[in-house]
Amino acid sequence: MLKSRMMLLRLGIMVFSQEFAYGTWFTIGLILSNKGQSSMIGAVFAMGGIAAILSPIVAGMLTDRLFQSQIVLAILNITAGIILWFIPTQINSGNETMMLCLVFLFNLLFIPSYSLRNNISFRNSRM
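The chain above was modelled as a monomer; its predicted structure follows.
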């Protein structure tokens, strides 16, 4: 009983941290408008939509055939975090092309975390 409650707590923390990380992403519009780049807001959010179409296919194939979901989720989140680290530099320098490339790569790596997170949660939430 205690083991299942601890697992649910850990799964809840995982879900909260993933949603919190992506929820903070929606402040990018405010950041871009404050930096005088409000014309880029639509393109930045469009990159997320394009990445949402492409990335789950590749991540699903990797997870189903080659690796465990936990490993793929960890690698994708760490790599996305590293890419996210460089986006403010590009915003401040005004390099819009590189910023869009980094935003696209970030979304390409972070979007599959939803399906991987669900896979991990459903596998471990047996009661």
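The mean pLDDT is 85.
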